[in-house]
Specification:
Blueprint lengths: L6 E8 L2 E10 L2 E9 L6 H17 L20 H12 L5 H19 L9 H14 L4 H20 L27 H10 L4 H9 L5 H5 L6 E2 L4 E4 L9 E4 L2 H12 L21 H22 L11 H14 L4 H8 L5 H5 L8 H12 L2 H6 L24
Antiparallel strand pairs: 1-2, 2-3, 4-5, 5-6
Helix pairs in contact: 2-3, 3-5, 6-7, 6-10, 7-9, 7-11, 11-12
């Protein structure tokens, strides 16, 4: 005897009021079918009648489960490049050093956003990226390496857009969208050129001497240095704020630099522990761009005039503040100092750059600063630029220069 088919009407309260549904067994499986609400005209009696109809259809083999209505998803709003890039920057701000944040904001605010701000992410096509690159080249305000640096930021942003599902692929990746660049010239200074530079530096001699002899300091490290970071008695200089973790370091001062800094402090109106070592006239922190343009470049021009008059090789064209950092490494190599020691002094994350300027491994820390002073000569000779030039090393053609001053 066939088993009697069962089922029942269910009622529950929903957002739109009372909802009626059926529960029953069909073809060996339990089924649940929602009928509708009282607002739609469903009542208990109507639901009971529908249950009987369904049971009859099941017995005849004619009943089919109702098809579910497809879920229509709201179209996902595509953000503009401005919106997405701003969120990208804010999400990373706390992970980056202040110097890196400044570099990223420079690339965005000054270059990428003026061009791409109103573009939807999908509108940042290969054609638009090429248009951006050509427009920057025509402006002539940024070199090829600087443009490529902004394109690297663009690729970083679009890579996250791919991860989030806004884009299928990152069209800013790879070398295809980049500017062609010429091989970088090696711009470190030789000992004779360093002496000429210091002799032409005038009142800024100690600043430039510290930048070189203080472990190849970055311009931001020089401008941010305070007297509390300088231990003249122990001959130590602490770099407490740097763009890299390895850049936070302790540097040994040579006797020559100790003497220079002591004289500089004695004659400074700002010598309290929290005062800047090289402040403005008002005692505030110097702007690093002003140090480049108003301290270093005029000193290079004056030094080159003196070198050319003496028929000596001038400082290479395009030398920057970062060149002084390379100069420190090359002079330490010439002095025969152990590259591991130089690496720690200069604050590199690995030794590849340091090793690239070394021709041999020589003495360790004990003799390092004395030899370095001997290469450049005593203070008075450096001021006058009259000391005979010692033998200088062959150019270290393997030194990799930075792309621009913004890498300082």
């Amino acid at each position: 005897m066939p088993r009697k088919m069962t089922g029942k009407v269910l009622e529950r309260e929903g957002q739109r009021g009372r909802v009626f549904a059926l529960r029953f067994t069909a073809y060996g499986r339990r089924q649940y079918v929602t009928l509708g609400t009282a607002e739609d005209g469903w009542t208990r009696a109507r639901a009971e009648a529908e249950l009987e109809n369904v049971k009859a259809d099941v017995r005849r083999g004619r009943w089919q489960p109702p098809e579910r209505e497809p879920v229509v998803e709201e179209p996902r709003r595509e953000p503009t490049f401005h919106e997405f890039a701003s969120e990208w920057m804010e999400a990373r701000r706390h992970e980056l050093s202040a110097r890196t944040v400044e570099d990223y904001e420079w690339a965005l605010a000054v270059h990428l956003l003026p061009f791409f701000a109103r573009h939807r992410l999908s509108e940042v096509t290969a054609e638009e990226i090429d248009r951006y690159r050509v427009a920057k080249l025509r402006q002539g305000r940024l070199g090829a390496r600087g443009i490529n640096k902004t394109l690297t930021r663009l690729a970083q942003i679009l890579e996250v857009a791919v991860e989030y599902g806004h884009l299928d692929r990152n069209l800013a990746r790879g070398r295809g969208r980049r500017c062609r660049t010429k091989p970088t010239r090696r711009r470190f200074l030789e000992a004779e050129q360093v002496r000429a530079l210091l002799g032409a530096a005038g009142q800024h001699r100690t600043l430039l001497l510290t930048a070189i002899w203080g472990g190849g300091l970055r311009v931001s490290e020089v401008t941010g240095m305070r007297w509390q970071d300088v231990d003249l008695a122990a001959g130590r200089l602490r770099v407490v704020a740097s763009k890299t973790e390895a850049g936070v370091r302790e540097v040994d001062l040579s006797p020559h630099l100790q003497e220079e800094l002591a004289t500089h402090k004695a004659g400074s109106a700002f010598s309290a522990p929290t005062d800047y070592v090289f402040p403005t006239r008002q005692g505030t922190r110097r702007d690093r761009n002003n140090v480049r343009s108003r301290v270093l470049q005029p000193a290079i021009r004056r030094a080159n005039a003196a070198l050319e008059e003496a028929e000596r090789t001038p400082i290479p064209q395009g030398a920057t503040f970062h060149s002084l950092r390379h100069t420190y490494a090359s002079l330490m190599a010439e002095a025969g100092v152990d590259p591991a020691y130089t690496k720690a002094q200069i604050g590199h994350t690995d030794a590849r750059f340091t090793m690239s300027v070394y021709t041999h491994v020589g003495n360790r820390r004990e003799a390092a600063n004395g030899r370095l002073d001997a290469i450049v000569g005593p203070a008075e000779s450096a001021r006058s630029g009259t000391n005979p030039a010692p033998a200088t090393p062959e150019p270290f053609e393997t030194v990799e220069a930075e792309a621009s001053d913004s890498a300082l």
